[in-house]
Amino acid sequence: MIRVSGVHKTFLLGDEPVHALNDIQLSINAGEYLSVMGPSGSGKSTLLNMLGLLDVPDKGKYWLSGTDTVPLSEEQRAVYRRNEIGFVFQSYHLIPRLSAAENIELPLILAGIAPAERQRRLQPVLERLGLTDRAGHLPNQLSGGQRQRVAIGRAIIMRPHLLLADEPTGNLDSQSGAEVVALLEELNADGITLIVVTHDAALGKRAHRRVRMVDGRIVSDDCSSTPDNNHRSGA
Q1: CB 55 within 8 Å of CB 49
Q2: DSSP notation for 189-235
Q3: Cβ contacts of residue 210 below 8 Å, gap of 6+?
Q4: Which residue numbers delimit the ABC transporter domain (predicted)?
């Protein structure tokens, strides 16, 4: 599903170049559950942004579902993000004036999907997330765990093949965090490819495959002993 070859990304911090990604080589099969860990400044979020087509490499190649994404125009990248990729962030990024249901429904509206089809897709998602009785509440009327479930609903409403989660439990208490992790893992069990960036070692260890980054490089790439142990062989 994913193949990254020889990717570099450099930013300027003042006058000093920062090598955020340095010769990244990575292959991820469809349906994998992978965590990306490492110290602050190691390049984890930069890698996630690139995988999510929010950024482009300075050098190298990134294929997603067989498509060479580097030459795509910004408009093409936006369409690809909308249809193929879901994002879950630490800070939720919900629209304050929209209800929980409206936040989840927003990608469908932006995609021009008819109201009847939007409702057909929305109700099962609300039920699965346990948000039916909170559907009309604004974000400031929800708990942190509920807000993150709304964010997950928004991320999956377009039925993406790839779900990218950046510190998804970072703002949550332990119980809410455990509920969010369980939900993400259920989605992965349904076939969504799940990539989680985290500082939480316990969360990172739950993944079937664990990538560690230091100074913009991948320094380790370990798989659990699961029945599907060919994680690194395909694209």
Answers
A1: yes
A2: HTT-EEEEE-S-HHHHHHSSEEEEEETTEEEEEEE-S-S---TTS--
A3: 34, 35, 37, 204, 220, 221, 222, 223
A4: 2-235
What would the mean pLDDT of 117-122 be, rounded to a whole number? 95
Question: What is the reported pLDDT for 12?
Answer: 85
Q: Look at residue 23 and tell me whether its pLDDT is greater than 60.
A: yes
CB 187 within 8 A of CB 160: no
Cα-based distances in Å from 142 to 137, 145, 174, 181: 7, 8, 17, 18
Output the 3-class SS for 113-133: CCHHHHHHHHHHHHHHHCCHH
Sheet of 162-166: strand order equals: 85-89, 162-166, 193-197, 33-37, 209-214, 217-223
Residue by residue, DSSP assigns 85-102 as EEEEETT----TTS-HHH
Domains parsed from the chain with CATH numbers? 32-53+73-223 (3.40.50.300)
Amino acid at 70: V
Scanning the structure block, which residue is given the tokens 């039916």? Answer: 132
Nearest of 87, 89, 92, 235 to residue 164 by alpha carbon: 87
The mean predicted confidence, pLDDT, of the chain is 91
Chain length of the chain: 235
- pTM of the full structure: 0.90
Q: Beta 67-68 vs 85-89: how paired, if at all?
A: unpaired
